[in-house]
Specification:
Length: 252
């Protein structure tokens, strides 16, 4: 199987080199403040190629083979290669076992380098583990302490998947538990984590505004202002004003 995995990886890299276009690089570079290392392949071509690879090799490689391939793709640092890895994992996610969870944690700790790759995994791949009793939300607790800002950001972004259930059940206790879960991140110093937290809080506010506003009040003097910028985006100007700091910022 290793020989086949190497051959597929080479096919994908050859494809990316053959279809590289500097105009595509220039088109999307402005969206990646944290860094962007692409070949410059049109996204539709990438999607079609990923679909073709899955169709040809799914049975031959199986989940283990695609995980090995994913490791290789993520290590390269190239945006399109990471995109292939995300697509492959999305396709296989229904067949995940708890043993896959630490494998994907390694991707975040070691190789994830941009918000698009991170959020693709958080939106389409990681929520599968929230449904596993052996993992669940508690499985993400140690992610909050990772040295990687992308691993930490993955926590609130993956948690967005839990809001649908809270909405359906009108679950105040459930929302409260989610807010408690992000507390260890509220003093994080990384911008991408602030954005992920603010995004989560904004979407949670739509369900339980009173709870989220009370939570924000607890943190308004200490947490990064970018969290509040995102979290209060859908509020009225009058409501947003309540979350201004009452004393001078200390550089956050």
């Amino acid at each position: 199987m290793e020989t086949v995995v190497l051959a597929v990886y080479q096919e994908l890299t050859d494809f990316c080199v053959a279809h590289a276009d500097e105009r595509v690089v220039e088109k999307y570079a402005r969206f990646f403040r944290e860094g962007y290392d692409p070949y410059g392949v049109d996204r539709a071509l990438v999607a079609d190629k990923g679909k073709a690879i899955l169709g040809r090799y799914r049975d031959e490689l199986g989940l283990d083979g695609f995980l090995e391939l994913g490791d290789m793709l993520m290590q390269s640092g190239k945006w399109e290669e990471a995109g292939f890895a995300v697509r492959f994992m999305k396709d296989w996610s229904k067949e995940f076992t708890p043993a896959v969870f630490p494998r994907l944690r390694k991707w975040f700790d070691t190789w994830v380098q941009d918000w698009a790759t991170s959020d693709g995994l958080c939106g389409d791949v990681l929520p599968r583990f929230l449904d596993m009793p052996q993992v669940g939300l508690d499985g993400f607790a140690s992610w909050r302490d990772s040295e990687s800002k992308w691993t930490r950001r993955a926590v609130p972004v993956t948690m967005l998947a839990l809001l649908k259930e809270c909405k359906e059940q009108d679950d105040a206790a459930g929302v409260g538990a989610l807010l408690d879960f992000i507390r260890p991140l509220m003093l994080d110093e990384e911008r991408v984590v602030h954005q992920g937290l603010g995004w989560f809080l904004r979407e949670t506010w739509k369900l339980r505004p009173d709870q989220v506003e009370a939570f924000l009040m607890e943190w308004k003097e200490e947490s990064a202002r970018l969290i509040f910028q995102y979290a209060t985006e859908k509020m009225t100007a009058e409501s947003r004003a309540r979350f201004r700091r009452e004393r001078k910022s200390r550089g956050r």
